[in-house]
Amino acid sequence: LDKWFNILKPKNLLVLCTAGTNVFKNVLPHYGLTYKFDSIKSYIQYLWEKIENGTIQITNKLDMTVSIQDSCYSKMFGDDYMDLPRKILEAIGVKVIEIEACRENMRCCGIGGGFSMDSAYHTMKIRSATMRNIKEFKKVKVDAHFSNIVLGSSQYPPSALEKQLS
C-alpha cells in the first residue's frame, strides 16, 4: 500500500465499506502503516457532510419506509457513526423503522469474515443469526430493507427476503 499511496499521492481516502474504514483507520496504523493524506472517511460520513453543508441538495424525496441492518463494524465507531445512514435516509424522505436487533444489538451476518472456515464465527451459527434477522425484518411493514454491511449498502424489497425463507 505504501508503494501505491506514494505513486498516487492521494489527498484524502474515501472508503466504501465500514470494515475497510476500520482497516485503514485502526488496523493498518497498528502495524506501522502511516499515511501522507489529510483524511480517511467512510462514504456515509462523506455523503452526510455533503448533505449537511448543502453541496448535495435533495429535491425529490422518496416517501417510503425502511428497516436497517447495521454493519458489525459500525458498532466500533459508536452511536454517531450508526446515526449517519439513518440521517441520510431521513434527509431523502425515508422513514426508518427499527427492528429489535438493531444498532449495537444487530446479529452478525458473517460477511466481514467472508464465511471463512478460519473465522472465529461458526458458519452455521452465522446462518442461524441471518435467518433470525430475516424473520425479524419480515415482521416489520416497510417498503424496503436497507443493509449497511461491509460490502457497501444495498436495498432489498421485502419480497427478496421472503424468497430466502422459502
From TrEMBL:
Signal peptide: none
Pfam hit, one: CCG
Cellular component terms per the entry's GO annotation: plasma membrane
Record key words, sorted: 4Fe-4S, Iron, Iron-sulfur, Metal-binding, Oxidoreductase
InterPro entries tied to this protein: Cys_rich_dom, HdrC_iron-sulfur_subunit
Entry's Gene Ontology molecular function annotations: 4 iron, 4 sulfur cluster binding; metal ion binding; oxidoreductase activity
Every Cysteine-rich domain range: 67-144
UniProt protein name: Cysteine-rich domain-containing protein
